[in-house]
Structure formats: C-alpha cells, structure tokens
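Exercise 3.2. Students should predict the tertiary structure of the chain below and write it as structure tokens, then compare their answer with the key that follows.

Predict this chain's 3D structure.
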Amino acid sequence: LLGNNQSVELGEYINAIEEALGKKANKNLLPLQPGDVPDTYADSSKQVQTLGYQPSTSVRGGVKRFVEWYLNDYQTLAKVREATSNQAVA
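Answer key:
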C-alpha cells in the first residue's frame, strides 16, 4: 500500500465509509486525545522517483473498494475459517 502527498481530513474518511456502507456512523466527537496526531503528511517523491508510480486512486474510491473487498472476500474467508475450526473441535 502506497500513499500520496495529499492530506485528507478524518471527516472525509468517515463520510467515504458511510457512503460505501450506505449508513451513517454514530459519532462521538471529542477534542484531540493524548497521542492523537493533528496533521500528517507523506512525502511520496521517492516512490515516484524509484518506482515511477504516482497514486491516482481517490480516498472515496479506495475506501469503496476496501469496503467491497471486506464485505465480500474477507467475511467469506472468516466464515470458512470459523466453520473449519468448529469442525476440528467437534
């Protein structure tokens, strides 16, 4: 997974997840907590120079694809693992 050098507000991520799931999050907005990072920034110049790769996936597009993967593939895999472990116990 490679990032880019564009900062994204947390609210934009939350909105993208809500949109991908088709439901609103129950938010409990609090002030910054100890250990929270107010701003982050990635310098992607080395990946562009070394790999010739410049990320082009938007936050909304990436979150949508991740949520689709999780709901389809990951949960299916988790159910298979659970069924297999239940059979081993039985």
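Discussion points: DSSP finds three helices and no strands in the chain. The first helix runs from residue 10 to 21.
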